[in-house]
Amino acid sequence: MPKIKMPKANPSLDMTPMVDLAFLLVTFFMLTASVRVSEPVVVDTPSSTSDKILPDNVLLVSVDKFGKAFFNISNPAVRISTLERMGEQYKITFTDQEKKRFGAMTSIGVPMEKLKEYINLDDSQRQKVKSPGVPIDSLNNQLGEWIQFGRIEAAKQAKAEKDKAEGAGREFKYEPMRFAIKADGAANYIAVQDVIKIFTKKDIYRFNLITNLEQPEE
Amino acid sequence: MAEVNTGDGGGGHGKHDKKRAKKLSTRIDMTPMVDLAFLLLTFFVMTSTFNKAKTMEINFPAEPKAEDERQKVNNALTFIMSKDNSIYYYYGEFFPAANKDGKPATELTKTDFSKDGLHKLLLDRNKPTIEEINTLSEQLKKGEIADTTYKRKAIYAKGNKAALTVLIKADDKAVYKNVIDLIDELNVCQVGKYAVVDMMPAEFELVTAAGAK
């Protein structure tokens, strides 16, 4: 009896479509991924059903579990000019190098007196520093000053951009800076209220409270 | 590693030693490249975060000036939050124990953040507004009114003078999460008028007494 001949299968496989797909995905993820910079504070925000997305141009105040306040401005140029104004106020001069480093940083939670030292730390060392929080008491209201100057500088920046855009004959879409508060769910409400009071004293009444998205029941 | 298979296994030694172009195989070993591609893919999938932060927009009232008289609020419901996620409420105006109007003293009722507590209470209290908005959204579904009309009318219904007004107060032991939960619940229950305000000393005493029980 003749043997049944098994067809010889080619062991090598055409991988081209798979590779195409893999690279497509790699490209997609590379382009969409945003670098997540490490924050000096962990804030576990409470969840809500609100699905509004945080605007890009914000002045953010974080409040951690212990009620310490942290300050951040999303726009690097505004950050740097705010730092200059704060430096003038506290008679601290920052070098160009320090300003540049500050522009690339995230939230800060140190008082002005220690800020220079904090900026000059390495990224890895900065992680280890325990931030005492920006002072918010009425005698030494540094957070209030940061907000004040941040707001002025943001308005200046927007004006400069508008002039530039109009000079070049482009249309300028003004996006006002929003004020966001990112507080830990376990934080005492009074601590958050203190921060809100600082804002309302400066005639800022509209906030974006940052929350996690919660799946509605049912 | 990645070498090109030339595949001219001793070719070109024919009879006449003709000069022939070398036959190159077009196949390249792609395995290392694929390895790398998948490695990168895995890395980016793992590290990327898609969710942008979600926010809740809210307006806070300005600090009242000293000479301002306390405003009367129609149809007001006041929530007071305290320690251990407890929440109390009272309806209408606040009357201290011995007031000159001779009204009975305000008593706090305790509730909780569960579905049968706060949610039910708000649905009950805010029934007219919710019904109005439901009729509007049904009209929207049938195409009787436009999207913008719906939005305008819904805002009007929520801001109506007869609609429920909620005052949110928290004492020094309440946590931020409770305030957010409450505001969220108000949004779900279509309460358009709410404000986070400071507590009165009399209310604070009442809450402390209720918490000590």
Q: What order do the helices and strands come in, and which of them pair?
A:
The complex is a heterodimer of chains A (about 220) and B (about 210).
Chain A: H1 16-32, E1 47-48, E2 52-53, E3 58-63, E4 69-73, H2 76-90, H3 96-104, H4 112-119, H5 123-128, H6 142-167, E5 178-183, H7 189-201, E6 206-213
Helix pairs in contact in A: 2-3, 2-6
Chain B: H1 31-47, E1 54-59, E2 76-81, E3 87-91, E4 109-111, H2 115-125, H3 127-142, H4 147-159, E5 165-170, H5 176-188, E6 193-196, H6 201-212
Helix pairs in contact in B: 3-4
How would you describe what is shown here?
The complex is a heterodimer of chains A (218) and B (213). By secondary structure, chain A is α/β, with parallel strands linked by helices. Chain A has one domain (47-213). Chain A contains seven helices and six strands. In chain A, strands 1-6-5-3-4 form a five-stranded mixed β-sheet. In chain A, strand 3 (58-63) and strand 4 (69-73) form a beta hairpin. The radius of gyration of chain A is 25 Å and the shape is elongated. The mean pLDDT of chain A is 82. Chain B is α/β, with parallel strands linked by helices. Chain B has a domain at 76-113 and 164-184 and 194-212. Chain B has a five-stranded mixed β-sheet with strand order 4-3-2-5-6, covered by helices on one side. In chain B, strand 2 (76-81) and strand 3 form a beta hairpin. The N and C termini of chain B lie far apart (78 Å). Residues 5-15 of chain B have low confidence and may be disordered. Classes of the chains: A alpha/beta (218), B alpha/beta (213). At the A-B interface, helix 1, strand 2, strand 5, helix 7 and strand 6 of A face helix 1, strand 1 and helix 5 of B. Strand 6 (206-213) of chain A pairs antiparallel with strand 1 of chain B, so a sheet runs across the interface.
